[in-house]
Specification:
The protein is of the alpha/beta class. It contains four helices and five strands. Helices cover 36% and strands 25% of the residues. It is globular, with a radius of gyration of 14 Å.
Length: 119
């Protein structure tokens, strides 16, 4: 079972920007009510997607440099990264199905196109 990685200003480059897989980063804070609501959802997504998706959590209060670098203004904010680039973003508490749907789209976009007749 996969668990979210604790992200810091110091490990963000290696854990997210240099990661070979799709990465979901949850930007939040301990005092943020909607962030606490989303915590179990993020944990469930980490377990659900396993090796297909890396999930990380970054505390915007203690890791303000990285939060500022990506222009995080509202929490929770979710950014999806592929090969060091942001490919999607969402802000606020939401149903698991909405976040999972965006992850699915990003995962499919990262797959090589299938040739006709192959499956």
């Amino acid at each position: 079972m996969s668990h979210p990685v604790v992200l810091t200003d110091g490990n963000f480059q290696q854990q997210v920007l240099e990661a070979p897989e799709l990465v979901l980063v949850d930007f939040g804070a301990l005092w943020c009510g909607p962030c606490r609501v989303m915590d179990p959802v993020v944990d469930q997504l980490a377990a659900q997607y396993g090796s297909r998706l890396k999930v990380g959590k970054l505390d915007c209060d203690t890791e303000a440099q990285t939060a500022a670098r990506f222009g995080i203004r509202g929490m929770p904010s979710f950014l999806l990264f592929r090969q060091g680039q942001v490919v999607d973003s969402l802000t606020g508490a939401m149903p698991k199905s909405r976040l999972a749907g965006r992850i699915e789209v990003a995962l499919q976009a990262g797959q090589p196109p299938q040739r006709p007749g192959s499956s």
